[in-house]
Write a structure and sequence with these properties.
The chain has about 290 residues and is mostly beta strands. The chain has 2 helices and 13 strands, in the order H-E-E-E-H-E-E-E-E-E-E-E-E-E-E. Strand 10 and strand 11 (about 215-225) form a beta hairpin. It is globular.
Length: about 290
């Protein structure tokens, strides 16, 4: 029987020589060395754009209304300067911080057609990062170019809202006297790492209320710690429920999805602000 002919379409290769194998080994070693020398570029200084849940710790002996702050929701955003060609300069970034409490007061003034018309007074503070990249995992804004400030009129009481059962759905908002409010931020630090890109913040706050004819000036200083995102943790009865801070869904309590908080952050439900907050100073990790 004649030998069978191969029908394979693949090319038949000869066994490589010892010299060829040695050359391949050397090439592989060089390639591996090159790969090992590659490293991830450092992140740019930035913050997440969104709402942070903040706790305020009084650091001055002040008394009066200005010394009663316990926390707030802070809106943070990063903006980049423009280069001469009009494109963004990613080595020059600035941070904006706006407190929700001040924004709500400004909204009430707008609702009665008495907004602060002075363009020099802003609802937000704004200042540059001191470096383009984090140092020891932190990006800093030592001082702001300007603080947040509003000149507010007397604001009327807003009655509580109730549902058909007579249950309060939105609490009463008290009336206020005319006042000028100022937020001055300093020593602002954002944790910027590969797994926490601008989602933890600490800062010092000087808060001033000027009430002409109603107590004069009141200034207090606070140390602030904040985390993104801002997540409410009050149950249906208005009590703190730490389960609402979980990064995992929990259908048993009506959580169709997780809180969005980093699972590696140490979190608790603050009993006063009823927000999920950090338990430690940044960098805070479990």
């Amino acid at each position: 029987m004649p030998p069978m002919k191969s029908t394979s379409k693949f090319v038949r290769y000869s066994v490589p020589s010892t010299a060829t194998i040695a050359a391949l080994v050397a090439l592989t070693a060089l390639t591996s060395m090159g790969a090992a020398s590659c490293s991830q570029p450092p992140p740019k200084c930035t913050s997440v754009r969104g709402d942070f849940a903040a706790t305020y710790k009084l650091t001055s002996p002040a008394t009066g209304e200005c010394s009663k702050l316990t926390g707030d929701v802070l809106g943070l955003a990063t903006y980049n300067a423009s280069k001469a060609d009009g494109y963004a300069d990613f080595d020059k970034a600035s941070l904006a911080i706006q407190a929700e409490a001040l924004g709500k007061l400004a909204d009430r003034a707008q609702a009665i057609n008495q907004p602060d018309l002075d363009a020099q007074r802003k609802l937000y503070a704004f200042g540059p990062f001191s470096t383009a990249h984090p140092s020891d995992d932190f990006c800093e804004v030592p001082a702001m170019n300007y603080g947040a400030q509003q000149n507010l009129p007397a604001l009327p009481l807003i009655p509580a809202k109730k549902n058909d059962k007579g249950e309060v759905t939105e609490p009463e908002v008290p009336a206020t006297v005319p006042m000028n409010i100022k937020y001055e931020w300093s020593n602002t630090r954002l944790l910027v790492t590969a797994d926490a890109v601008g989602t933890q913040m600490s800062a010092d706050l000087t808060y001033t209320e000027n009430r002409p004819g109603n107590g004069g000036d009141c200034t207090a200083t606070y140390h602030v710690v904040a985390v993104y995102p801002s997540v409410p943790c009050a149950d249906d009865e208005g009590k703190p429920d730490i389960r609402l801070c979980s990064p995992n869904a929990n259908p048993d309590i009506g959580m169709a999805q997780g809180s969005g908080l980093n699972p590696d952050f140490p979190i608790t439900c603050d009993p006063v602000t009823l927000r999920c907050v950090l338990t430690e100073e940044p960098p805070a990790w479990k």
